[in-house]
Write a structure and sequence with these properties.
Length: 361
């Protein structure tokens, strides 16, 4: 494993776990897969194989993971929907890493995504010189997945224009891709599927048509139900991320993680955790993923400019950027939260309150 690479794909980062599961496999393996659905679930949700501990990649409803895996055994595509930061892309990557050993067949959906990126395009220099040929064709991740009987990923599908989204309808229905320029039709091999993700906050940007939705089995990934569950997710991911970065700081203590998750949940839900007081919500989602990012940034501040242990000033700097995204609305909501909620929580919160108030002055 090359430690100089900033972000390794899941199949390399967890290669030891994947190899242990493959070696210990006893259940039937679907065609085109590297391991059985049961082993894929163990890889995603955690467990133990022999002496190898399988770390959980997704902490949440295991039944949702089972539904997602079972969908990929059939000829249906999978659509993961949820709020920002609910681990849609993370789950998508790890599913393909476990099933195919290659999570790199990805199309990132944006307003600039074209039909060619879904199907295929051409090397125009070769096309002009020699005319259409297979050598001149640039195959999309979906194209190569069909050829190899593997899974392609389409991230943020609702960010793509409607006509680009609809390119997938025929591919998912007919399970073949046509190349009229070469009078060629490429059928999908067994094992081919698509995992798409969609953000509920993008609803209305480019709504998916009913025809396209019918080609997917939809799994909705919820936000963590409890504070303890969210803290567990944050703690696990911060440990994983910090191990690959030179942050030069100790991991955040449990009380630090609890404070961040408490603030995020209360501003996200519009009320305190004890349900006794209403709170103004902010324009941003304040997702679990943002809590993870905030703590990693706080560790970087502490390691680069502090003692190596996260201080209230380090947390306050991250909170200011995470919470206040829309100055007019969020600044008011954040100041009210500081004065009406955080200030009244006693000595345990006083240091963080003072650090956050100083940044707001």
């Amino acid at each position: 494993m090359d430690n100089s690479i900033l972000r390794l794909p899941a199949e390399q980062l967890f290669e030891e776990e994947l190899n242990a599961l493959i070696k210990a496999e006893k259940d039937p393996i679907p065609e085109g897969w590297r391991m059985s659905p049961r082993s894929v679930k163990t890889y995603i949700c955690g467990g133990k194989v022999g002496k190898t501990v399988i770390t959980p990649k997704y902490i949440g409803h295991e039944r949702l993971v089972e539904i997602a895996i079972a969908t990929l055994v059939t000829d249906r595509a999978l659509l993961l929907i949820g709020e920002p930061g609910t681990a849609k892309s993370w789950l998508s990557e790890h599913l393909t890493a476990a099933i195919n050993g290659n999570s790199s067949r990805v199309i990132q959906g944006t307003a600039g995504t074209t039909e060619e990126q879904i199907r295929y395009s051409w090397n125009y220099a070769m096309l002009i010189a020699n005319g259409p040929s297979e050598e001149a064709m640039l195959k999309s991740p979906v194209f190569t997945a069909m050829e190899d009987g593997a899974i392609a990923r389409v991230e943020e599908i609702s960010r793509c224009a409607s006509e680009v989204q609809d390119t997938l309808i025929s591919l998912l229905s007919e399970k073949r891709i046509s190349v009229p320029e070469l009078s060629l039709e490429v059928p999908a091999k067994k094992g081919f599927s698509v995992i798409a993700t969609a953000n509920t906050r993008d609803k209305g940007v480019n709504d998916m048509s009913a025809a396209l939705k019918r080609r997917f089995n939809i799994v909705v990934l919820p936000a963590p139900e409890t504070l303890e569950e969210e803290m567990n997710i944050v703690k696990t991911r911060v440990e994983q991320l910090s191990s690959s970065l030179d942050l030069n700081a100790v991991l955040p203590k449990a009380e630090v993680i609890e404070k961040i998750c408490t603030i995020f949940r209360e501003l996200r839900n519009g009320e305190t955790l004890d349900n006794k007081q209403k709170v103004k919500t902010t324009a941003g989602v304040l997702s679990t993923a943002e809590a993870i990012s905030l703590l990693c940034n706080s560790m970087a501040l502490a390691g680069s400019f502090g003692s190596g242990e996260i201080s209230d000033d380090d947390i306050a700097a991250g909170l200011q950027g995470a919470v206040v995204k829309d100055d007019d609305k969020d600044s008011v909501a954040w100041k009210e939260y500081l004065e009406n909620i955080m200030k009244k929580r006693g000595a345990a919160w006083s240091g963080l309150y003072k650090a956050c108030r100083e940044l707001n002055e």
